[in-house]
Amino acid sequence: MNKREFIRYSGLIGAGLITGGTFNMCRNEKNMINKNKSVKPTLNMKFTPYTLQLKHSFNLAISSRTTTPVMFTEIEYDGITGYGEASMPPYLGESHETASRFLSSLDLKQFNDPFLLEDILNYVDSLMPNNYAAKASVDIALHDLIGKLSGEPVYRLLGLNPEMTPFTSFTIGIDTPEIVREKVEEAAPYKILKVKLGRNNDREMIDVIRSVTDKPLCADVNQGWKEREYALEMAHWLKEKGIIFIEQPLPEEQFEDISWLKERSPLPIIGDEAIQNLADLIKYKDIYSGVNVKLMKCGGIRSAFIMLKAAKALGMKTMIGCMTETSCAVTAAAHLSPLTDWCDLDGNLLISNDPFEGLKITDGKVTLPVSKPGIGVEKVENP
Fold first, then answer.
1. N or C: which end of the chain has fewer CB within 10 A?
2. C-alpha to C-alpha distance for 99 and 49, rounded to whole angstroms
3. In terms of domains, do 261 and 173 share one?
4. Dihedral sign, CA of 298, 159, 23, 311?
5. Which residues, 6+ apart, have CB-to-CB distance to 148 below 8 Å?
6. Which pLDDT value is given to residue 383?
7. What strands lie across the sheet with 64-77, from one edge to the other?
8. What stretches in the chain show pLDDT beneath 70?
9. How far apart are CA 134 and CA 127, in angstroms?
10. What is the pLDDT of residue 16?
11. What pLDDT, on the 0 to 100 scale, is given for residue 381?
12. Do 167 and 264 lie in a common domain?
C-alpha cells in the first residue's frame, strides 16, 4: 500500500465511515446505571468448555470432522450476565487449551463500567496476538451485557434495521449422492444452498443437487482447487448450473492466481480463509470481489462491524458467515446481517446439542429476536 492509499484508509476510519460512532449511544446509557452507588460493581467472567456434536460428518475439501470444540463465556455485572462463545474449528489453530489459557490471563475486574467497550476490548486485544475466537467470546458477551443493561437489542445499538436481514443459505457438505439428497431435503425451508466443493466429485455434487432442486446455489471450495485454469473452467460450468458466487476457490497464498481468476471469472470470487481481519481486507481488496466476515476469524462483533462497513466503502460484496456454532454465536452474528448482501448463518442447525435458543429462520429469512435485549439468546435445559 502506498502513502496515498494509507492516508485514504486511515481517513475512512478516522472520519467514522467505518466505525460510524457505533457504540457512542451505549456510553449515553451508562449514567443511568449505578449512578447513586458509592462503590461500583466490577466485571466478573467465567468460561466453560463444551463440544458440539454434528448431525452429519462435516466434509470439506481438505478435512472432515464430527465435532467442534467451543468455549462458553459469561460476563456478569451487577447481577446481569452476558453470554459469549468461541467456536474453534481446526484451521483456526485454537482449542480448549489455548482458549482457557488466554481467557485465564484476562483481568476484567479492573473495569467497573461495561459501557467502556473500546477500552475493554483494546485491553483484550493487547494481551496476546491471534486467539480471535477466544477474543470473540469476550466481545459477544460484552455486547450481550451492555444490551441487557440498556434494555436494547444489539442491532439497535449498532443502528441497524432488523427488517433488512437477508435470506440465509444452508450448507450441504461433501458426501455420497444419497446423503446429499437427504441434506437437500433437510434444507427445504431455505431459499439458498451453499455447496461444499473442492474434491474430485464436484460435478457430481452439483448434478445430484440439481436433480432435486433448482434453488440458487453458492459454491464454497475451501481452497480445494489448485490450478487457476481449472478454477476458471469450473467457474464457467458453475455459472451454467445457477451458482451465484464462488468462495475461496484457490489456496489463500496463491493471490496472483486468485487475482487472475477474478479478472476472468463470470462469477464473483469471495474471500474467506484469506481474509481474517481488517488488515487482510485492505491488503486483498483488489483480489476478491467480496468477503465472508466471521466473528470467530476477526475477534467479534466490533471488528466484524468495522470490516463490513469498510468492505462496503471499498465497493466489495459483503457476507456474514459462521463456523459450526451454537445459537449464541450465530445469533450474535445475525445482528450484523442487515449490513450484508448474503449471509450463511446455519451453524446452529448443523449440531444436535445446542444449549441456546436465539434467532429464528422464517421462510428462509433471518429473524432477529427483536423483543429481547442484548443478543437475545436464552439457555435451554437438556440440549
1. N
2. 9
3. yes
4. positive
5. 80, 81, 82, 373, 374
6. 76
7. 44-59, 64-77, 80-87
8. 1-38, 60-63
9. 12
10. 43
11. 83
12. yes
Q: Are strands 378-379 and 356-357 parallel, antiparallel or unpaired?
A: antiparallel
Alpha carbons 89 and 68: distance in angstroms, whole number: 6
pLDDT at 194: 96
pTM for this one?
0.90
Other C-beta atoms lying within 10 Å of the C-beta of residue 118 = 14
Could you tell me if 165 and 366 are in contact, meaning their C-beta atoms sit under 8 angstroms apart? yes
Cβ neighbourhood burial of 198 (10 Å; 0-12, 13-18, 19+): buried
Give the cell for residue 144: 450481550
Q: What is the pLDDT of residue 61?
A: 67
Task: Supply the pLDDT for residue 56.
Answer: 83
Q: Kindly give the interhelix angle for 202-210 and 228-240, rounded to the nearest 10 degrees.
A: 10
Q: What is the largest CA-CA distance in the chain?
A: 69
Is there a domain that residue 187 lies in?
A: yes
What was the pLDDT predicted at 64?
A: 75
**Is residue 142 in some structural domain?**
yes
Task: Write down which residue in 102, 131, 156 finishes a domain.
Answer: 156
